[in-house]
Amino acid sequence: MTRSPHTLFLISSASLFFSGIILLSYRAYGWELLPMLGLLILYISTKNNRSVVSLFLFFLIGFLTFQCATGWMNGWEILKETKILLNRSFLLFILFALAVSQWIAKGKVRLYMTLPDWSKRISMPSQTISLPLFLLIGLAGSSTIFIPLIWSEGISELKSLFLFAIGFTILNATLEELIWRGVMLSSLIQNTSVVYAITVTSIGFGLLHLSIGIPLLLSLLFSFGGLFYSIVVLKTDSIYPSIAFHMVMNMGMVLNGWIN
Protein backbone atom coordinates (compact mmCIF):
# COMPACT_ATOMS: atom_id res chain seq x y z
CA MET A 1 0.00 0.00 0.00
CA THR A 2 1.41 3.37 -1.06
CA ARG A 3 1.53 5.98 1.69
CA SER A 4 0.76 9.62 0.95
CA PRO A 5 3.56 12.22 1.19
CA HIS A 6 1.78 13.73 4.21
CA THR A 7 1.77 10.37 6.04
CA LEU A 8 5.43 9.73 5.21
CA PHE A 9 6.29 13.21 6.45
CA LEU A 10 4.58 12.60 9.79
CA ILE A 11 6.22 9.16 10.18
CA SER A 12 9.64 10.65 9.39
CA SER A 13 9.10 13.46 11.89
CA ALA A 14 8.07 11.01 14.63
CA SER A 15 11.04 8.73 13.87
CA LEU A 16 13.47 11.63 14.22
CA PHE A 17 11.72 12.66 17.42
CA PHE A 18 12.04 9.18 18.95
CA SER A 19 15.69 8.94 17.84
CA GLY A 20 16.39 12.25 19.51
CA ILE A 21 14.87 11.12 22.81
CA ILE A 22 16.91 7.90 22.76
CA LEU A 23 20.21 9.60 21.90
CA LEU A 24 19.72 12.33 24.49
CA SER A 25 18.74 9.78 27.13
CA TYR A 26 22.10 8.06 26.58
CA ARG A 27 23.81 11.49 26.45
CA ALA A 28 25.07 10.92 22.91
CA TYR A 29 25.14 14.65 22.35
CA GLY A 30 27.16 14.59 19.13
CA TRP A 31 24.83 12.12 17.45
CA GLU A 32 21.82 13.97 18.84
CA LEU A 33 22.52 16.81 16.41
CA LEU A 34 21.48 14.54 13.52
CA PRO A 35 17.78 14.10 14.42
CA MET A 36 17.57 17.77 15.46
CA LEU A 37 19.10 18.80 12.12
CA GLY A 38 16.68 16.45 10.35
CA LEU A 39 13.72 18.07 12.09
CA LEU A 40 15.05 21.53 11.23
CA ILE A 41 15.28 20.54 7.55
CA LEU A 42 11.72 19.21 7.64
CA TYR A 43 10.59 22.42 9.31
CA ILE A 44 12.16 24.53 6.57
CA SER A 45 10.86 22.30 3.77
CA THR A 46 7.19 22.48 4.75
CA LYS A 47 4.54 25.01 5.60
CA ASN A 48 1.55 22.82 6.38
CA ASN A 49 3.16 20.73 9.14
CA ARG A 50 5.48 23.24 10.78
CA SER A 51 3.58 23.22 14.07
CA VAL A 52 4.12 19.45 14.43
CA VAL A 53 7.83 19.56 13.55
CA SER A 54 8.32 22.62 15.76
CA LEU A 55 6.75 20.75 18.67
CA PHE A 56 9.18 17.84 18.26
CA LEU A 57 12.21 20.08 17.74
CA PHE A 58 11.55 22.29 20.75
CA PHE A 59 10.82 19.24 22.90
CA LEU A 60 14.33 17.96 22.10
CA ILE A 61 15.83 21.38 22.83
CA GLY A 62 14.07 21.36 26.21
CA PHE A 63 15.18 17.78 26.85
CA LEU A 64 18.79 18.70 25.98
CA THR A 65 18.60 21.51 28.55
CA PHE A 66 17.08 19.06 31.04
CA GLN A 67 19.95 16.60 30.54
CA CYS A 68 22.62 19.31 30.83
CA ALA A 69 21.04 20.64 34.04
CA THR A 70 20.84 17.12 35.46
CA GLY A 71 24.49 16.40 34.60
CA TRP A 72 25.54 19.65 36.25
CA MET A 73 23.49 18.85 39.35
CA ASN A 74 25.01 15.37 39.70
CA GLY A 75 28.26 16.96 40.77
CA TRP A 76 26.61 18.52 43.81
CA GLU A 77 27.10 16.95 47.23
CA ILE A 78 23.45 16.72 48.22
CA LEU A 79 21.12 13.95 49.36
CA LYS A 80 20.06 11.39 46.76
CA GLU A 81 16.39 12.18 47.38
CA THR A 82 17.04 15.89 46.79
CA LYS A 83 18.77 15.08 43.49
CA ILE A 84 15.78 13.02 42.37
CA LEU A 85 13.33 15.81 43.22
CA LEU A 86 15.48 18.40 41.43
CA ASN A 87 15.72 16.08 38.44
CA ARG A 88 11.94 15.94 38.23
CA SER A 89 11.60 19.69 38.65
CA PHE A 90 13.94 20.15 35.67
CA LEU A 91 11.09 18.80 33.49
CA LEU A 92 9.99 22.43 33.55
CA PHE A 93 12.68 23.05 30.90
CA ILE A 94 10.79 20.78 28.50
CA LEU A 95 7.46 22.39 29.37
CA PHE A 96 8.92 25.85 28.80
CA ALA A 97 10.41 24.81 25.44
CA LEU A 98 7.02 23.47 24.33
CA ALA A 99 5.40 26.75 25.37
CA VAL A 100 7.91 28.63 23.19
CA SER A 101 7.11 26.30 20.30
CA GLN A 102 3.40 27.00 20.60
CA TRP A 103 4.02 30.73 20.89
CA ILE A 104 6.05 30.70 17.67
CA ALA A 105 3.47 28.56 15.87
CA LYS A 106 0.63 30.63 17.37
CA GLY A 107 -1.02 27.39 18.38
CA LYS A 108 -3.70 27.00 21.00
CA VAL A 109 -3.11 24.43 23.74
CA ARG A 110 -6.10 23.08 25.61
CA LEU A 111 -4.22 21.44 28.51
CA TYR A 112 -7.56 19.75 29.39
CA MET A 113 -7.63 21.81 32.60
CA THR A 114 -11.35 21.34 33.16
CA LEU A 115 -13.01 19.23 35.81
CA PRO A 116 -14.67 16.02 34.58
CA ASP A 117 -18.38 16.02 33.88
CA TRP A 118 -19.50 13.43 36.45
CA SER A 119 -22.81 12.84 34.65
CA LYS A 120 -21.02 11.83 31.44
CA ARG A 121 -21.18 8.28 30.15
CA ILE A 122 -18.07 6.71 28.64
CA SER A 123 -18.35 4.75 25.40
CA MET A 124 -16.87 1.27 25.60
CA PRO A 125 -16.61 -1.36 22.80
CA SER A 126 -19.98 -2.97 23.62
CA GLN A 127 -21.70 -0.55 26.02
CA THR A 128 -21.46 2.72 27.90
CA ILE A 129 -20.58 3.13 31.57
CA SER A 130 -20.81 6.07 33.92
CA LEU A 131 -17.75 8.27 34.35
CA PRO A 132 -17.42 7.51 38.10
CA LEU A 133 -17.40 3.77 37.35
CA PHE A 134 -14.84 4.26 34.57
CA LEU A 135 -12.56 6.18 36.94
CA LEU A 136 -13.09 3.64 39.72
CA ILE A 137 -11.96 0.83 37.38
CA GLY A 138 -8.91 2.90 36.39
CA LEU A 139 -8.07 3.59 40.03
CA ALA A 140 -8.39 -0.09 40.90
CA GLY A 141 -6.04 -1.02 38.08
CA SER A 142 -3.50 1.64 39.08
CA SER A 143 -3.64 0.55 42.72
CA THR A 144 -2.32 -2.91 41.87
CA ILE A 145 1.12 -1.26 42.02
CA PHE A 146 0.83 -1.54 45.83
CA ILE A 147 0.39 -5.34 45.85
CA PRO A 148 4.15 -6.06 46.34
CA LEU A 149 4.02 -4.01 49.57
CA ILE A 150 1.90 -6.74 51.17
CA TRP A 151 5.03 -8.91 51.39
CA SER A 152 7.35 -6.05 52.30
CA GLU A 153 9.18 -6.40 55.61
CA GLY A 154 10.59 -2.87 55.76
CA ILE A 155 7.51 -1.07 57.07
CA SER A 156 9.64 1.43 59.02
CA GLU A 157 11.54 2.27 55.84
CA LEU A 158 8.23 2.87 54.06
CA LYS A 159 7.30 5.47 56.67
CA SER A 160 10.55 7.37 56.10
CA LEU A 161 10.00 7.22 52.35
CA PHE A 162 6.49 8.61 52.53
CA LEU A 163 7.32 12.34 52.49
CA PHE A 164 9.78 11.85 49.65
CA ALA A 165 7.16 9.80 47.80
CA ILE A 166 4.61 12.61 48.12
CA GLY A 167 7.05 15.19 46.73
CA PHE A 168 8.11 12.91 43.90
CA THR A 169 4.59 11.97 42.86
CA ILE A 170 3.32 15.55 42.82
CA LEU A 171 6.26 16.83 40.78
CA ASN A 172 6.64 13.92 38.40
CA ALA A 173 3.01 13.08 37.69
CA THR A 174 1.89 16.69 37.28
CA LEU A 175 4.76 17.79 35.02
CA GLU A 176 4.78 14.62 32.89
CA GLU A 177 1.03 14.81 32.33
CA LEU A 178 1.19 18.51 31.44
CA ILE A 179 4.00 17.77 28.97
CA TRP A 180 2.62 14.65 27.30
CA ARG A 181 -1.13 14.99 27.57
CA GLY A 182 -1.64 18.67 28.32
CA VAL A 183 0.61 20.08 25.57
CA MET A 184 1.84 17.33 23.24
CA LEU A 185 -1.41 15.36 22.88
CA SER A 186 -3.70 18.36 22.59
CA SER A 187 -1.39 20.10 20.10
CA LEU A 188 -0.92 17.03 17.90
CA ILE A 189 -4.66 16.28 17.84
CA GLN A 190 -5.26 19.74 16.37
CA ASN A 191 -2.86 19.06 13.48
CA THR A 192 -2.85 15.27 12.98
CA SER A 193 -5.12 12.28 13.55
CA VAL A 194 -6.07 11.13 17.04
CA VAL A 195 -4.33 7.79 16.41
CA TYR A 196 -1.07 9.51 15.43
CA ALA A 197 -1.24 11.86 18.42
CA ILE A 198 -1.86 9.03 20.89
CA THR A 199 0.79 6.78 19.34
CA VAL A 200 3.54 9.43 19.30
CA THR A 201 2.87 10.72 22.81
CA SER A 202 2.59 7.21 24.27
CA ILE A 203 5.84 5.96 22.73
CA GLY A 204 7.63 9.21 23.53
CA PHE A 205 6.40 9.03 27.12
CA GLY A 206 7.82 5.52 27.43
CA LEU A 207 11.16 6.36 25.82
CA LEU A 208 11.70 9.36 28.11
CA HIS A 209 12.10 6.90 30.99
CA LEU A 210 15.45 5.89 29.47
CA SER A 211 16.83 9.12 30.92
CA ILE A 212 16.31 7.89 34.48
CA GLY A 213 18.10 4.60 33.85
CA ILE A 214 15.18 2.34 32.96
CA PRO A 215 16.14 -0.26 30.27
CA LEU A 216 14.80 0.17 26.73
CA LEU A 217 12.37 -2.78 26.79
CA LEU A 218 10.88 -1.73 30.11
CA SER A 219 10.68 1.88 28.94
CA LEU A 220 8.68 0.75 25.92
CA LEU A 221 6.32 -1.07 28.27
CA PHE A 222 5.76 2.29 29.98
CA SER A 223 4.25 3.37 26.66
CA PHE A 224 1.17 1.36 27.58
CA GLY A 225 0.87 3.62 30.61
CA GLY A 226 1.01 6.59 28.26
CA LEU A 227 -1.70 4.98 26.13
CA PHE A 228 -3.88 4.49 29.20
CA TYR A 229 -3.42 8.10 30.36
CA SER A 230 -4.21 9.40 26.86
CA ILE A 231 -7.44 7.41 26.75
CA VAL A 232 -8.41 8.66 30.21
CA VAL A 233 -7.81 12.30 29.17
CA LEU A 234 -9.74 11.97 25.92
CA LYS A 235 -12.61 10.02 27.48
CA THR A 236 -13.02 12.41 30.42
CA ASP A 237 -11.93 15.57 28.56
CA SER A 238 -9.87 16.39 31.66
CA ILE A 239 -6.23 15.97 32.67
CA TYR A 240 -6.95 15.68 36.38
CA PRO A 241 -7.92 11.96 36.42
CA SER A 242 -4.75 11.02 34.52
CA ILE A 243 -2.65 13.05 36.97
CA ALA A 244 -4.35 11.23 39.85
CA PHE A 245 -3.76 7.78 38.31
CA HIS A 246 -0.16 8.74 37.50
CA MET A 247 0.36 9.81 41.11
CA VAL A 248 -0.93 6.47 42.37
CA MET A 249 1.52 4.62 40.13
CA ASN A 250 4.43 6.84 41.12
CA MET A 251 3.64 6.49 44.81
CA GLY A 252 3.66 2.72 44.46
CA MET A 253 6.93 2.76 42.52
CA VAL A 254 8.66 4.83 45.22
CA LEU A 255 7.33 2.76 48.13
CA ASN A 256 8.32 -0.45 46.32
CA GLY A 257 11.87 0.88 46.01
CA TRP A 258 11.80 1.10 42.23
CA ILE A 259 12.75 4.80 42.26
CA ASN A 260 16.19 5.39 43.76
Which regions have little confidence, pLDDT < 50, spanning 5+ residues? Answer: none
Strand order of the largest sheet: 1-2
> How many DSSP H or I helices?
10
Radius of gyration (Å)? 19 Å
- Shape label: globular
Task: Give structural attributes.
260 residues; two-stranded antiparallel sheet; 10 helices; 2 strands; globular
Question: In words, what does this structure look like?
Answer:
- With 260 residues, the protein is mostly helical.
- It has one domain (5-255).
- The protein is 72% helix and 2% strand.
- The chain contains 10 helices and 2 strands; from the N terminus they run αααααββααααα.
- It has helices at 5-25, 29-45, 50-73, 80-89, 92-105, 131-143, 155-191, 194-207, 216-236, 240-255, and strands spanning 121-123, 128-130.
- The protein has a two-stranded antiparallel sheet with strand order 1-2.
- β1 and β2 form a beta hairpin.
- α3 (50-73) runs antiparallel to α5 (92-105), α6 (131-143) runs parallel beside α10 (240-255) and α8 packs across α9.
- It is globular.
- It starts with a helix and ends in a 5-residue tail after the last helix.
Question: What's a concise summary of this model?
Answer:
By secondary structure, the protein is an all-alpha fold. Helix content is 72%, strand content 2%. It has one domain.
List the helices and strands and how they pair.
Layout: H1 5-25, H2 29-45, H3 50-73, H4 80-89, H5 92-105, E1 121-123, E2 128-130, H6 131-143, H7 155-191, H8 194-207, H9 216-236, H10 240-255
Antiparallel strand pairs: 1-2
Helix pairs in contact: 1-2, 1-3, 1-8, 2-3, 3-5, 4-7, 5-7, 6-10, 7-8, 7-9, 7-10, 8-9, 9-10
